[in-house]
Amino acid sequence: MARKQKNVILLTIDTLRKDVIGCYGMGESYTPFLDSIQDKCVRFNNCQSVGPYTQASFPGILTSSYYFEFGREKQISSKRTVISEVVKNGGFTTAGFHSNPFLSAFFGWNRGWNTFYDSMMDQVTDHAPYILGDVINSKVDSWVNKHTSSEDYTPFFLWAHYMDVHEPYVPKQEYIARIDPELKITDDEMFQLFKDVVLPRDTSDPAKNELLKKLYLAHVLEVDEYAKQFFENLEKSGVLKDTIVIITSDHGDEFGDHGSLSHDGRMYDELINVPLMIYDADQTENQVSDTVVSGVDIPPTIAKTFELSSPDSYCGQPLLPLESYSSNGSFGEAMGKLQHKIKPTDRPAYFYQEENLRISYRIEDEKWEMFDLQADPAEKENIVESSGSASDMKEKLKAQMHVVAFD
Amino acid sequence: MPKIELSEARVAELKQKIEKSKEIFKMAYDRFEVKDQRMVWSAGKDSTLMLWICKQFCEENNLPMPICFTIDEFDVFEEIDAMLKIYAEKWDLRLDWGINIDVVEASGWELNADVTVSDLTKENQAEIDRIGFGELERFPFEAESFIGNHLMKSVVVNKYIQDHDVKAFYQGLRWDEQPTRSDDPYFEDVAADEYTPEQTRYRPILHFSERDLWETTLYFDIPYCSLYEQGYRSLGAKTTSLKLDDKKAWDQDLENTIERAGRRQDKEAAMERLRQLGYM
Q1: Nearest CA in chain A to B183
Q2: ipTM of the complex
Q3: The CATH number of the domain covering residues in B8-229
Q4: pTM for this structure?
Q5: N or C: chain B end with fewer CB closer than 10 Å?
């Protein structure tokens, strides 16, 4: 018998580029599992993360707000409402499982969860400084089985987050072999690349950029396997049919696409344009949306599924039903840092996107860039001086940007 | 006259919670001989409540108390040290002290002094390697840094369990202490690994919230360390425990503020991960 109120699972995959996911049709597929569930998914082809790295993007995904909306915070502001708080206060059960230090209890992300696992007290290694996806899966699985052991369990909202794609790129040999059977590299050599090439953002050797990309793709294959296992566990537990699963990424990753590596404070497609799909067992065919949507739309979508109203602080709107969504363009902001660490001289950078146009502004060098993503998907030709839409786009960006004070 | 006024219903509720804890002790005593049991007692509020309930249980059932075990991190509040000594004597407890003396000696008996890794025993060096710092030459001696916490606590506990062949271990953890604990079971059989023999961990006071704990402590006149009167909510190492408020611990907004906000350990753990990911 189908349950009246569905559960919601938010499955976020750190650092997952959209163009490696086959069903987006942007290139070769490294995600056979994610491709295979599309007939039960609504897929969003044009979702922008509200920031190009975790601290900047997760305020959107979990609190429907922007990074600088409440100034610069040591811990997340009490003025933000974590979606877990909304759902828990609505009388449902909440659980979160992840291994990203930026999302740990120390920074205040443990608000609103009945169960919260951030792994910070667990042991990890330098080669994989996080809990692997299969361990996250087993923690989720045991929680789900325990929670749903009685027929009349309280519907739940569960968030699980995989770190495996994130650097350092030290994937298991079996996945490297699937990417390139000729490639022979030891774990230590891979880790050395992280220290010598990724951390200093050294893109001078194209062969190394390509090698790093291969290692990254091996991790994508791995994480796709974890996603498969995740769904199989839900199926075995008998809850998949009663559960909506939202799958997205907090940001992408760069391999020399715009002259750098990793994911810093820049607003290009490889970092900002993220996958987003909503799985529902009751879905009868694949549905696709080309509308510009945003990470801030995820919390209102979750609230609505539980028939709860969104708090006033929420900037987004429910993604479903598709026909009720009216796009206001998408916006995002982050420190415009160009390296791993934030320097005192770094200043914010912003973007605004409407249909196929994205404009960005870096305060530090007062640089505006605008690209027509349809005509120029690689974002090579800056049209901010030539396009008739530029001044209108500038105004729309300025209307949304949060200005923050610096020491 | 109790130190706190509570309604009859509330007192009955707290008594029930105490009885629940006694059930856990009974389970442990039914399964293990007392000589194989140990109770971790730091003289903090949680383990002192656990100890007090155990004492009630033993008196009611005419059973001997388990041996208590405390970890000396070499960065201890004098008030905690005094409480351990005074109540060990007053309650006639056997109290074992554990310390990783090798690390203390290598620091020249000085907090924050540099410890040279090669000065340590092979065992301690292997432990540093195990937590991913194999390349490190020296580190500052801090009880609650990532390395310090491992060497001064985890290693000491593991060694003690091994040396004394401890089979049952009581921990004064509470579900509401931090969200990561909210799923901990009352008892757990832990399989042997390279570092520790097989053991069962009992957590008799899991169901006490911070509010329950303080009301029980005050109402039943259970001893507590005077630092809680000065505003400390959670006591760890002396130099890294902070008080965020001057109000007595139990007068603070227990429900809406974080008990462990004054502990640096959580920060250290998050910072260490960020370092490994290259962000620090």
Answers
A1: A115
A2: 0.84
A3: 3.40.50.620
A4: 0.71
A5: N
